Each structure stands twice: as C-alpha cells, then as structure tokens.
Design the sequence.
C-alpha cells in the first residue's frame, strides 16, 4: 500500500487556516509560529501538486480544488481522532465490543430504544447483536461467545435479572376450521389440526416448547415465517402479541377462543457472562436494557412511529 505523502497534522493545519481566517489566526489557535504554519501549508501544496489556497487581500481563500480536498480531509481527521479516543478508552478498560444475544421473541422495539440510547454513550464501542430461538440463547451464553443474553428461560447456573413477560397468543386465520366451530375450544380440538411451531436454534438439547402433540406439525425457522403461514390459513400457532399486532388489527389473524391456555406469559431474563468481568460499556447497556424493558411497549412503539 502506498504511504500517504501528506500527514494528518498538515490537514489539521490547513483546516485551522481556513476555519480561523488566516495564517496568523491559525498560528495563535494552534500555539505555533506563523512561519511554521505557512511552511506546513506550502510544503503540503508541493507534495500534492495542487494549489489549495490563494491570497485575497489579507485573507487566505480556498481554491476550488482546495475546497474539495478540505471537505474530504475533515472526515479523515475526525476518524483519526475517534480512533485515538477509542484507544484511550480501551486503555482505561472500555470495551471495543459488547456481544448481545437475544431470543427472537423479545420485543425488538425495546432493543431499538436501548441501543439508540447507548450510541451517544458508547465511546466507539460496537454492539454485535445475535438472535437465537429458545435454547439457542442458552448455548451461546454457555459457549462464552456472548457478554449479555436475553432469554425466556431460567438458565441453571446463572443469576439472571427478571424482565417483563412476553405475551404469546393462540391464533389462526378467521376462516380456519377452528374458528368455524363457533364455540369455546379445548386442547382436544387443537390436536386434530395442523400446528405451526418454531424450530429451536439450539443444537445440543432442542426443545418443543408449546407443541401439543398435534397429529400434524409444521416446523419453521422463524417467528416471521410462522406468522406468514398462519395468516395465510395454514394451521394455528402461539405467537408473540407484539409481533402480530398489525395482523390482529387488520383481521388477518384472530385469537382462538380456548377454554384455557389461549394466552401465555413467559418471563424473560437478562444474563451476563459469569466468566468475564463487566466492563463500563456493558454495564451502561445493561441499565438501558432494564430501563426500556420497564417502559410500556405501546409507548415505545408510538415513539418509534413519530421519529
């Protein structure tokens, strides 16, 4: 790779001359001599082979080429400064990355608001977000490749922080055979129908949570696919209410009139990697996740619509 001929210090000096209106003013702002500033910019123009400034009266004015290059250089200098800040923060124990694994059933609106609030406090710390289903979250946490995890399971060996429950609703298309019975339904009614279930992303001990032992079962890879299938009249399923609110409003899906179990409310838990000390960025993200978990979902969704 070809080494740059112009240094970041030279670009900073050119910016100072333009921003402060001249060589003398730039020299004062940079705590340097005027001759040093003039030499730096002159040498820079020689190296680039392009005139960057012209003198208009007593003021240094950008040439057309200088204007183009200066605009590009501002982003370059800004990124270099951010890189230096990140190195300083890492030296002080600030993480370069936080790895977060979340059960796909957890409301994404809560995550969006928490991560949006985290950005201005992150000091360059990245977030690597990963979605899993059911026991997949637990496996990722056990493997040590996640710093934080949000799961609908009480994971043995970990002290989780209790979070809000997520409501799952038994639904089917309004024209489904179950709705045409026009009465309260029981589990025996469901056993004769096609049930759509979500594949557990865990590999070691996958679980069939919510399956009733129906004669017909279709297993799909995501909650979104399950919603599409059931909305098209293919079977019934328990789906998170927050994910199907539009389908319920539009009448594409309708809750099943079960005598019991039509609505389930599993609690979710926030876990941290017990084999790794919590860094400052991770602790900030934990507090934000807990804060927005307690905010009513309707409020978060309404806020998202107005942004």
Sequence:
């Amino acid at each position: 790779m070809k080494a740059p001929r112009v240094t970041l210090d030279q670009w900073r000096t050119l910016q100072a001359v333009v921003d402060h209106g001249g060589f003398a003013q730039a020299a004062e702002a940079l705590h340097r001599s005027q001759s040093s500033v003039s030499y730096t910019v002159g040498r820079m123009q020689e190296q680039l082979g392009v005139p960057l400034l012209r003198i208009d009266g007593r003021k240094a004015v950008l040439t057309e080429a200088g204007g183009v290059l200066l605009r590009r250089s501002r982003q370059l200098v800004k990124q270099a400064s951010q890189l230096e800040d990140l190195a300083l923060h890492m030296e002080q124990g600030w993480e370069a990355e936080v790895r977060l694994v979340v059960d796909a059933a957890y409301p994404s609106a809560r995550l969006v608001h928490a991560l949006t609030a985290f950005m201005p406090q992150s000091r360059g710390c990245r977030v690597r977000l990963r979605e899993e289903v059911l026991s997949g979250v637990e496996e990722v946490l056990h493997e040590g490749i996640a710093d934080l995890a949000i799961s609908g399971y009480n994971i043995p060996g970990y002290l989780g922080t209790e979070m809000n429950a997520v409501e799952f609703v038994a639904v089917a298309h309004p024209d489904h055979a179950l709705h045409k019975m026009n009465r309260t339904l029981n589990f025996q009614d469901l056993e004769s129908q096609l049930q759509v279930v979500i594949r557990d992303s865990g590999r070691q001990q996958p679980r069939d949570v919510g399956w009733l032992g129906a004669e017909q079962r279709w297993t799909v890879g995501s909650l979104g696919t399950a919603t599409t299938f059931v909305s098209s009249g293919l079977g019934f399923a328990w789906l998170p209410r927050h994910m199907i609110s539009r389908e319920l409003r539009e009448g594409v899906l309708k809750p099943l009139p079960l005598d019991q179990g039509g609505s389930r409310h599993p609690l979710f838990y926030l876990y941290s990697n017990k084999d790794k000390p919590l860094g400052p960025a991770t602790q900030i993200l934990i507090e934000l996740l807990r804060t927005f978990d307690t905010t009513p979902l309707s409020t978060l969704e309404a806020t998202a619509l107005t942004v």
